[in-house]
Amino acid sequence: MSDDRLHTRNDNLAWVTGSDAPEKSTLDLGFMALTDSASLVVAATQGFAQPYGLTLNLKRQASWATLRDKLLAGELDAAQALYGQVYGIHLGIGGTATDMAILMGLCQNGQAINLSEPLRRAGVTTAEALVTHVRQGGARLTFAQTFPTGTHAMWLAYWLAAHGIHPLHDVNSVVVPPSQMVAHLQAARIDGFCAGGPWGALAVDQGQGFTLATSQMIWPDHPEKVLGVTAAFAEAYPNTARALTMAVLEASRFIEQSEENRRSTAQLISGAEYVDAPLSAIEPRFLGHYRDGLGNAWEDAHPLRFFDDGRVNMPYLSDGIWFMTQFRRWGLLRDDPDYLGVARQVQRLDLYRQAAEALGIEVPGPMRSATLMDGVTWDGSDPAGYARGFRLHALAGTPSALAL
Length: 404
Hints:
It is globular and about 70 Å long. Strands 2-1-3-10-4 form a five-stranded mixed sheet, with helices on both faces. Strands 7-6-8-5-9 form a five-stranded mixed sheet, with helices on both faces. The protein has two domains: 26-108 and 222-365, Periplasmic binding protein-like II (D-Maltodextrin-Binding Protein, domain 2, 3-Layer(aba) Sandwich), CATH 3.40.190; 111-221 and 384-389, Periplasmic binding protein-like II (D-Maltodextrin-Binding Protein, domain 2, 3-Layer(aba) Sandwich), CATH 3.40.190. The chain has 404 residues and is of the alpha/beta class. It has helices at residues 38-45, 64-73, 83-91, 117-121, 127-135, 151-162, 181-186, 199-205, 215-218, 231-236, 238-255, 259-269, 279-286, 317-329, 339-346, 349-358, 383-388; strands at 26-32, 55-61, 78-82, 100-105, 111-116, 142-145, 172-175, 192-196, 209-214, 225-230, 289-291, 297-299, 370-371, 377-378. Helix 6 (151-162) links the parallel strand 6 and strand 7. Helix 3 crosses helix 14 (317-329).
C-alpha cells in the first residue's frame, strides 16, 4: 500500500484508553469475496485498527446466508452485510426476528445486472428486447440474485418492474452466492444475474455475458453494503463498535485519497485470501472504467465509492426506510411497519456521529433524497404511500417468492 496512509491523530487516542477503551479488543470480521469489501480488508491489514486498540481477524464467507448465520450465532462479531439483509433479519423475514444494528455504510454504487451470452446471440441486448423476449411466451428466464432481502434482489426487481417485467410473475428468481454467478451463467443454469463486483466484469472478460445495466443507473449513489452487528453486540460493546467504525472510516477515506491508493487497494483485495479474482476484473470498475461486453466503454459518473467525504458512510434513516418500502412492495411484509421507528432502532446514528466527529468528518442530516431511474423521487417522507404507488407490486396475497 501507499506510504501516504492517514495516521490517527493524537486526540483520537483518547478512545483507546480509560473508560473509552474497547471492551473487546479482538474481533472476527465477516466479509464476502467482493470488490466492495475493500474498506474492511484495508482496515484489518494496513494498520488502521491498531491505533484504536483493535485486532481484526478477517473471515471470508461462502454465502450471505452463512454470513448471517455466523453473525447471529456470535461466531462473527461484525460483518460486511447487505443493507436489506440487516433489515430483513431485524424484521424476521424468512426467520426469527433478531434486533440488528448498522454502524455505517461501506459503499455506494458498483453492482451490475448481467445477461448471458446466448441472450446476446439472440439479440436480447437492450431492456426493450428483453421485454419483447419475455412477452413472446417462451421458456421463462431465470435470474439470480444473492439473498432474498438483499440489495441485489431489490435492484433486480426494481429494474425489471421499471421496464414492465413483473419480477415475481414473469421470470424466475433464484439465490446464488456472488462468486458462483459466472459459473452458473456458463452452465446455463441462469439467464442473468445481479451481483457486486468483480463478478459482472469477470463475466464480460470471460465472454460469458454482458452488462445490461449497473445499479447506479437505477439509483445514482445508492446505498449498498453496510457494517452490521447485532443490537446486542452494539449494546454490550459500544466503545468497541465506535472504535471499529473509526478504523473503517479511516480506511475508507484512505482508499479514495488518490488514484494510487485505489490501485494499490485493488491489487491487495485481488489476492487469493480476499476476492481471489484477476486484477483485470477488479481494477477497471474499481476506478470507474466500464466495458459492457457489447462494445461500449465509459467513465462512470457514479463509480463504486467508499467515502466521498463521509457521504457514503452516513447511515441515513431514509436509506433504511427505502428497503422496507420494497419489502412491502413485493409482499415480503404483509403490513406497513413503523418505517421511521424501525430505522431509528437499526441505524446507530449515535455511534456513527461520535466516530465521524472525532475524525473531523462531516455528518449530514439523517434523511436524503434521490430520483431513481423511473423518475420517481424518494425522500423518506411518505414510505407507506411510496410503497403503494408503484404500478407493479405484490402488496396483496401470499408472501413474495423472493422470500423463499
